[in-house]
Amino acid sequence: MICAKDINERTPWQDLTPGGEIYEPGTARAFNTGAWRTHTPVFHPETCKHCMLCVPFCPDNAIPVKDGKRLDFNYMHCKGCGICENVCPFPAITMVSGGVAR
Amino acid sequence: MSNRLTGNEAVAYAMKQVNPDVMGAFPITPSTEIPEYFASYVANGEVNTEYVTVESEHSSMSVCLAAQAAGARSVCATSSCGLALMYELLYVAASCRLPVTLACVNRALSGPININNDHSDSMGARDTGWIQIYAENNQEAYDNFLMAMPIGETPSVRLPVMTCMDGFITSHAVENIDLLETDVVRKFIGEYNPENYLLKKENPLAVGPYDVSPYYMEHKVQEAEAMKAAKARILEVAAEFANISGRRYGLFEEYRMEDAQLALVLIGSSAGTAKAAVDKLREDGIKAGLVKIRVFRPFPGEELALALANTRAVAVMDKSEGFSANGGPLFAETRSALYDLKERPYLIDIVYGLGGRDIKVEDFEKVFGRLADIAVTGETGPVYTHMGQRSKEEIA
Ligand code: SF4
Ligand code: SF4
Question: Where is each Pyruvate flavodoxin/ferredoxin oxidoreductase pyrimidine binding domain found (chain B) (predicted)?
Fold first, then answer.
């Protein structure tokens, strides 16, 4: 089976997967999609209870977790969809308009 | 097992024998009866298909390709504007390499609005990456549908298949046809076993990615190669089908072509009428013949060139207008296929039968009359003409 890491811009057509199928999850990590953002979530660590609800909801793996604590956003991947703000039961995330956190 | 069925019933019955996992169902004339008959099979528990009623053909094709991506076998049926509404998804199904099976009941496209038969709907979809197989009659409509899955699902092919029949002429006329036993059909089509699919839990899969320019062209080459590979597979499946049914199919059917000097190339139900004309002319010693294209995608170019190599004059009969100002789509393909021959027959294009306009044996005799003149004089006259329309001057 061909893995995403084995595919690059020099791969001949014979070695690509049919229809561009990707046979593994999490390949979004390989792409920096943060530049598309028009809204930006801002993290308020003092209010965060580390319940981890936001983490699985983020479609872009933009909320890193370390030692059971959620860390600040990884803006290289955050597309600003606002799902995290919606699911956060505490006011630990607020959305601001614009592509950068102010 | 013999039975009297309409073309729509025959295809619905084939679907029942296949017992697909999913059907995306939306009615449109003249294919409406297919989901209608199938709905009764679902209601009576004769199949265990997930019958998904949707709000448009765009959605029915979406349902089908999503189901197919999930690892299910999916079918649907449509016509005319319904097929046109699916165009976007037809490309998606083909480029995601999802072998959906679609019964297309050919009908004219608007406007002006017309519900009768011609091939403008499926011809509009000819470059979407779908395999297209056309039927002359109810028997072929049934047989083609059964052959569709073993063709499209083959790993070297993995392309969706559209089986086409002429609206009202084939879809609604009752004919005696031979049906296969259901267990024979099941054995013939086998299980759908894609290597990877969305619901395979050992192996998560992403389908339909954003294909940036460094990859898109490679995927299109893959698709084009798959279409080329389909030709051999179509013949292989036809040979297997002959073993269970006794009925033989090729990429096209040659009728009295052994020594034919004048020939027609056409698609679909008009072939029956044209065969009657050929027989009549043969009685008078005229060497007439015809080639009925069965598989239009992939187009059997080399094979067709061989079949026509020894003719003097050929009329390609297009049952759709291409508005290319240079002839219809079948003509373009045929003329291009013949270009590599050292000695080519004279070739003309006749667009006929649009929006349900009838064609009779005498009309075909007239076409052969024109071919006979061309063969003798070497003058083709106007190469691209229409036939059957009221006109101040009669050409064909
Ligand atoms: S805004 Fe969307 S993409 Fe960004 S961190 Fe929140 S959920 Fe993830
Ligand atoms: S949902 Fe809110 S409180 Fe829970 S971890 Fe995320 S930011 Fe913190």
Answer: 14-237
Identify the nearest ligand to the CA of A71 by its number: 2
Interface of A with B in 26-45 (CB under 8 A): 27
CB-based contacts of B133: which residues, under 8 Å, 6+ apart?
B144, B147, B148, B161, B162, B163, B164, B234, B294, B295, B296
Shortest CA distance to B156 belongs to which of B72, B225, B70?
A: B225
| A32 C-alpha to ligand 1 centroid (Å) | 13
- Yes or no: say if B333 and B85 are a contact pair by the CB < 8 Å rule: no
A47-60 pLDDT, tens per residue?
999 999 999 999 88
A1: pLDDT strictly greater than 90: no
How far does B215 lie from chain A, in Å, by closest CA? 7
CATH architecture of the domain formed by B252-395: 3-Layer(aba) Sandwich (3.40)
CATH number of B2-245: 3.40.50.970
What average pLDDT is seen over chain B?
Answer: 97
Reported ipTM: the value is 0.86
pLDDT band at A61 (very low <50, low <70, confident <90, very high): confident
**Ligand nearest A43 Cα, by number?**
2
Report how far ligand 1's centroid is from the alpha carbon of A30 (Å). 17
Asked if A27's CB is within 8 angstroms of B222's CB, the reply is no
Three-point CA angle B323, B329, B334, nearest 5°: 140
Ligand 1 atom having least distance to the Cα of A79: 3
Q: From ligand 1's centre to the CA of B364, what distance in Å?
A: 67
The answer to whether residue A12 sits within a structural domain is no
What residue type is assigned to position B375 of the chain?
A
Counted domains in chain A: 1
- The protein residue whose alpha carbon is closest to atom 6 in ligand 2 is A54
Residue B97 at interface with chain A, using a CB cutoff of 8 Å: yes
Which residues of chain B fall below pLDDT 70?
A: 394-396
**Residue B358: its pLDDT value, please?**
96
Percent over 90 (pLDDT), chain A: 75
Q: Whole-angstrom Cα distance, residue B299 to residue B329? A: 11
Per the CB < 8 Å rule, is A18 touching B204?
no
Q: B306 — contact with chain A (CB < 8 Å)?
A: no
Tell me, yes or no, whether A44 lies in a domain.
Answer: yes
Q: What is the pLDDT of residue B394?
A: 66
Round to whole Å and give the CA distance between B61 and B23.
9
Q: Please check whether residue A40 lies inside any domain of the structure.
A: yes
Tokens encoding A86: 């919606």
Give the residue numbers spanning the domain of A79. 31-97
**CA dihedral angle for residue B232, residue B234, residue B235, residue B237, rounded to 10 degrees:** 120
Enumerate the domain spans of chain B: 2-245, 252-395
At A102 the pLDDT is 60
pLDDT tens track for A21-40: 999 877 877 778 888 899 99
